[in-house]
Design goal:
- This protein has 30 helices and no strands.
- It is mainly alpha-helical and about 675 residues long.
- Helix 3 runs antiparallel to helix 4, helix 14 runs parallel beside helix 16 and helix 14 packs across helix 29.
- One of its GO terms (biological process) is cilium assembly.
- It comes from Oreochromis niloticus (Nile tilapia).
């Protein structure tokens, strides 16, 4: 064998030994003791050498170099190199928050400032010293400012203004022979702790590095793609702005009696479609034929047919329900989180519908159970996280139309929810999710009836009286829930029992800085004022004068709503019963990202959670049930200037408001630009 071949073989064996050593190091780190014993035995039997487990040599060597460079620049007085390394390698959380690090950094700045004086006490370079003093002053005015209130450091703030610090009594200690070695020892100890290399095995480091490289490559690819799309969108936008301006000019000209030529229309449409279609197709299309351009525009924004979405695996729901009731509190929390994530993180459409139907058909919340203790009893768990995650799951159910139907068929549900609402702390996430779930359930008449019977209106009015103690989110949902209940005849009569208090709270809410609640407050006021006794109380309280105080020029929609309320206040009509009306849930899905916010439960090392927990421990056979989802029934929407008169939720009302505002702006444009 040649010397070159021998060297190559030696490299291979060394690399193999390193690789085996990394595997051994990893098994030891993860405490796979039996596997490690078998691995060592197998290596010995095959005559394979494994290098001894050691620290991460790459990190070790890099750390040693950084530490050596910092100390040598300290010794040489090279402040620029030192602080460049210091900034790059000392973590910000240490530099900015650790008192020891901040004190050390202060003395390091002093060291580098007086370094020329220590090196040449008599014949030092004055220009160099003044440059360092300027550097120190800049530090004192920025990062060092925080220590100006500390007695230990306060005298040194005068250092830049003393002509000769070597003879000043306040700075005598700085020029003693022992001061610099002590500071160096302190710096060395600090660096040995802060720059301590990671104990993680090399195999994990290599894997993490590889993953980061792959993610970086993928990110670069996406950035390139997004930049390309952005540039195209920007070009299309500028093109559309120009076309829109010309079309508006043409519209105004038409209003003045001038005709638009077919050639002009053809050229305009060619410009409009040139970026979306082949030039030959655009040029050959006759856009002057009525309906051609509009049809092509509608086709260009028509939703594309979605690709087939995979269904999530079936689950063993009997085992799930058993562990939800009998498992540890941590397991209960992890399961409730995983089941909620299945709903909130599944894709809207067939995938999410299948998940919900599986929950309902397997009776996840046990509506038909005759057992003394069911899954719903987790709302009374002594563990706050279990209660919170149960409330989040119910909120997720209530966010979907079929989920609301299922929840409304559970007789004890409302009792659990209202009980929790009254017991939990004001700002707890459990209470917030219960409130939002109740608000969504109030879209259904059967649930409205039960809530009114449970005197939820009185509780809501008392809550809203102290509105400054509620978050904007809770305030919005409380006001919307109150309005939904006030739309019912029973709800109006309940308000009439304490009309003065209710009217005072509602009129006060109109002055709240959160303007998102106005539609719900106005809707509630308009509804209860159809009762003669409430109108009489309102007149005695001068409610009309109070309402007129809120009329503002910059908000015409609010003004018109207030005019409607005043008109209702001054009417003489009696109360019409709504007992014969049908169920009016609008079949809308209202899933919000807020359901998953502020997760307090995090999986521990090697602990299963989410979908991996469900598919590892609870796989079932054919428990997914598909069902054709009925199309949502569109309900008549109120005009933007009328008070709400049908149950809504804040999320659905925002979508309606955006559409109405756009329609009104468009109508206003045509009235102003074109004329009648």
């Amino acid at each position: 064998m040649s010397s070159r071949e021998a060297a190559k073989m030696g490299d291979i064996l060394a690399n193999e030994a390193d690789l085996l050593g990394m595997i051994k190091e990893y098994l030891k780190f993860e405490e796979f003791e039996e596997t490690l014993h078998s691995f060592e035995k197998e290596c010995k039997r095959k005559g394979k050498l494994a290098s001894k487990p050691r620290g991460n040599t790459l990190n070790d060597s890099k750390t040693r170099v950084i530490q050596k460079d910092l100390l040598s620049s300290f010794d040489d007085g090279d402040h620029r190199v030192f602080f460049e390394l210091w900034t790059e390698n000392i973590p910000p959380r240490v530099k900015d928050t650790d008192a020891e690090a901040q004190g050390l950094e202060f003395y390091l700045y002093i060291h580098f400032t007086i370094y020329p004086l220590r090196r040449h006490p008599v014949g030092h370079d004055r220009a160099e010293f003044e440059e360092r003093v300027s550097f120190f002053k800049q530090y004192l005015e920025t990062r060092g400012e925080a220590l100006s209130q500390t007695t230990e450091f306060l005298p040194y703030y005068a250092l830049p203004f003393v002509p000769n610090p070597t003879v000043h009594p306040s700075f005598k200690e700085l020029f003693q022979d022992s001061w610099m070695p002590k500071l160096r020892d302190k710096l060395e100890q600090f660096l040995s702790v802060i720059l301590k290399p990671s104990n993680s095995p090399r195999l994990m480091t290599l894997y993490a590095t590889q993953q980061l490289q792959l993610q970086l490559a993928e990110s670069d690819r996406r950035i390139t793609s997004y930049v390309r799309k952005f540039n195209k969108m920007q070009a299309d936008y500028h093109n559309l702005i120009g076309i829109t301006a010309e079309l508006v000019d043409s519209l105004e000209a038409t209003a003045s009696g001038k005709m638009i030529s077919p050639e002009y229309l053809q050229s305009m449409c060619v410009r409009l479609f040139s970026s979306q279609m082949r030039q030959s197709v655009v040029q050959s299309t006759d856009f002057t034929r009525p309906g051609t351009a509009s049809s092509m525009l509608r086709a260009s924004i028509a939703p594309q047919r979605t690709k087939d979405v995979p269904m999530l695996p079936s689950l063993d729901y009997e085992k799930l329900k058993k562990d939800l009731i009998e498992g540890s509190e941590r397991l209960q929390s992890l399961l409730l989180q995983a089941l909620r994530w299945r709903l909130t993180r599944s894709l809207p459409g067939e995938q999410r519908d299948t998940v919900l139907q599986a929950y309902i058909s397997n009776d996840l919340l046990e509506r038909y159970s005759t057992k003394e203790k069911t899954v719903l009893h987790l709302m009374r768990s002594p563990n706050e996280i279990v209660r919170q995650y149960m409330a989040r799951l119910i909120n997720a159910f209530a966010s979907l139309a079929e989920g609301r139907v299922y929840l409304s068929q559970i007789p004890i549900l409302l009792k659990h929810l209202t009980e929790t609402l009254r017991k939990e702390e004001k700002e707890s996430l459990t209470r917030e999710n219960v409130l939002v779930a109740l608000q969504k359930l109030s879209l259904r008449r059967s649930q409205q009836t039960a809530m009114i019977a449970d005197d939820l209106i009185g509780w809501l009015v008392d809550e809203l009286q102290d509105s400054d103690c509620l978050s904007d989110y809770n305030l919005e949902y409380s006001a919307a829930l109150l309005m939904n209940l006030c739309l019912r005849t029973q709800g109006k009569r309940k308000c009439a029992e304490n009309a003065k208090h209710v009217l005072k709270v509602l009129t006060d809410l109109l002055g709240h800085e959160n303007h998102e609640i106005w539609p719900y407050v106005n809707g509630a006021l308009y509804s209860i004022l159809c009762i003669p006794s409430v109108r009489q109380e309102a007149r005695e309280m001068s409610v009309e004068e109070i309402l007129r105080c809120y009329i503002k020029e910059e908000n015409p929609n609010l003004n018109r709503q207030i005019e409607f309320i005043i008109k209702q206040l001054n009417s003489e009509e009696g109360l019409e019963s709504d007992d014969e009306e049908e169920e009016d849930d609008n079949d809308e899905d209202l899933m919000e990202i807020d359901i998953d916010r502020e997760e307090v439960l995090q999986p521990q090392h090697r602990e299963l959670s989410g979908e991996s927990l469900l598919t590892t421990e609870y796989l079932g056979i054919l428990t997914n049930m598909t069902k054709v989802k009925r199309k949502p029934t569109p309900l008549p929407q109120p005009a933007a200037d009328e008070p709400l008169q049908r149950p809504v939720t804040p999320s659905s009302h925002r979508n309606i408001s955006v559409g109405l505002k756009f329609t009104l702006k468009l109508k206003h444009f045509f009235v102003v630009s074109v004329g009648p």
